[in-house]
Amino acid sequence: MNRTLIALVAVAVCLAGCTMAPKYSRPAAPVPAAWPQGPSYREAAGASPDTVVADIPWQKFFVDEKLRKLVALALENNRDLRVAALNIERSMAQYQISRSELLPKVDANASATYQRLAEDFSGTGIPLNIHQYNVGLGISSYELDLFGRVRSLKDQALQQYFATEQARRSVQISLVAEVAANYLSLAADRERLQLAKETLASQQASYQLIRSRYEAGVSSALDLHQAQTSVDAARVDIARYTTLAAQDENALTLVVGSQVPADLQPTALSETLSALKDLPPGLPSDVLLSRPDILQAEHLLKGANANIGAARAAFFPRITLVSSVGFGSDQLSDLFASGAFVYSVAPRVTLPIFQGGANRANLKVSEVDRDIAVAQYEKAIQTAFREVADALAQRGTIDDQVLAQQSLTDATAQSFRLSEARYEKGVDSYLNVLDSQRSLYAAQQNLISVRLARLANLVTLYKVLGGGV
Fold first, then answer.
1. Which residue has the higher pLDDT, 202 or 244?
2. Residues 361-388, mean pLDDT to the nearest whole number
3. Which of 54, 134, 188, 293 has CA 20 to 30 A from 118's CA?
4. Contact 448, 189 (CB under 8 A)
5. The model scores a pTM over 0.85
6. DSSP letters along 86-135, please?
7. Are 315 and 128 in contact, with CB atoms under 8 Å apart?
């Protein structure tokens, strides 16, 4: 028996590390090797930077100190990130469970049996009392993984763990980007609110002037009611932007995971215009190899590939071993005496003969799961490429939009000043002043929106380029 046990263990050691899983080969990326080119993109969009964006930590990307502190609070308190971290711990425990199946389970055991045999069964014609005492160590149902079934399951659990870790990275990057986006939205709406308040104060002053002129018989009732419409419109915007700012603050509180201190909240978008750094896009291969969602999809693909090995191994014999060594005696005092040593070795071979097609169906399921994982991996790459290309398309034109909107705002402000001067001299009606004022207010609001879009585009680039954590 000892030689049989030694032979089985030797074979298991020789075959350790072997599985029947197909050799993994990374699928080719179903996207071009360079980012799109054209009028919407910068000429240097495909240039390779000295560093990959994933290597740039968020502390270096976000320059504004308030924003950095808010991101740090979110990383500490956000519940989604906490769940992602707990999922990692769970996957690690699952992997340890699968890995433990490669090692024999050794249990200590002790037992005592008291039995009375009737006189018809004792063989002596009189009743017989039998006492048995045993103590020892045993291996219960240890599978010699000759065909890699257990090892394939362990590899699948390991890839699941790696995928969970990449999922946590993806959640963290999204969280950092969401904090920044909510921070910028709050800043923009508060600046819009302040602009509406300033416009209301200006319109109220104009209304009082027109009313005085009307009472003096200089201005018409039409001028008075037109001035009133401007005042009311500004009041509507104040109410609307007050609501939006409050909702932005609530959204920021939710994503941070705790109450946002007042000293960390922005007051206007203009003070955050230099809060972010610009990013080099790099080459598609660099981005696609760095994005955690793509790495997650690849680990899931590797896990599905390993699962095929376990399904294939199910067609071959399973060898399990039950053994124990210890001491036994019919007297407790003689349990460890000379000659009380006992052992048992019980290898068992199970060869599947008829399973009703279950093994073949399981293999088919594992192969289809692998094919699904390949399609999901390729789709993740295509989605990532599209997200980066969209962000680069906006990046290539957003600066021109900001410059054009700033020029439009300046020209509209000059037109408003001229129309006021012409009205005061009696050259034009107040309707021209009102139109100029509305155009200026709309241009100023649009300028805030375009500036917000530029900063939001940088945040999006940080996210879609796989920004560092």
1. 244
2. 93
3. 134
4. no
5. no
6. HHHHHHHHHHHHHHHTTS--EEEEEEEEEEEE-HHHHSSSS-EEEEEEEE
7. no
The whole-angstrom separation of Cα 364 and Cα 290 is 32
Looking at per-residue pLDDT, the higher value among 275 and 277 belongs to: 277
**227 contacts 203 by C-beta, under 8 angstroms:** yes
Question: How far apart, in whole angstroms, are the C-alpha atoms of residue 349 and residue 46?
Answer: 60
Predicted local distance difference test score (pLDDT) of residue 137 = 79
165: amino acid identity, one letter:
E
Q: How many helices (H) and strands (E) does the chain have?
A: 11, 4
Query: What type of residue is 157?
Result: A
**87: number of Cβ within 10 Å:** 17
* 97 pLDDT above the threshold of 90: no
Residue 173 in tokens: 């990057």
Q: Which of 102, 169, 181 is nearest to 142 (CA)?
A: 102
Confidence of residue 51 (pLDDT cuts 50, 70, 90): low
Looking at residue 238, its pLDDT comes to 94
- pLDDT band for 370, please (50, 70, 90 cuts): very high
The number of angstroms, rounded, from the C-alpha of 78 to the middle of its chain's C-alpha atoms is 13
**Res. 46: pLDDT tops 60:** no
Reduced to 3 states (helix: H, G, I; strand: E, B; else coil), residue 345 is strand
CA atoms of 104 and 78, how far apart (whole Å) = 41
pLDDT per position as a tens digit, 161-178: 999 999 999 999 999 999
Amino acid at residue number 334: D
* Residues written for the chain: 469
The DSSP secondary-structure symbol of 62 reads: B
- Cα 373 to Cα 195, 293, 297, 370: the distances in Å are 52, 13, 7, 5
User: How far is CA 391 from its chain centroid?
Assistant: 19
Other Cβ atoms closer than 10 A to 391:
22
Q: Which residue type does 377 have?
A: Y
pLDDT-based confidence at 423, cuts 50/70/90?
A: confident
Q: What is the DSSP string of 296-338?
A: HHHHHHHHHHHHHHHHHHTTS-EEEEEEEEEEEESSGGGTTST
How high does pLDDT run on average in the chain?
83
> Domains, the chain, ranges and CATH?
22-102+150-317+364-464 (1.20.1600.10)
CB of 219 closer than 8 Å to CB of 295: no
**Helix crossing, 149-215 with 430-464: angle to 10°?**
170
Q: Which residue type does 277 have?
A: K
The four Cα atoms 33, 39, 41, 44 give a dihedral, to 10 degrees, of 80
- Strand, coil or helix: 267: coil
Please list the alpha-helical segments (H only) found in 107-257.
Answer: 119-122, 149-215, 221-256
Name the residue among 233, 282, 236 with its Cα closest to residue 391.
Answer: 282
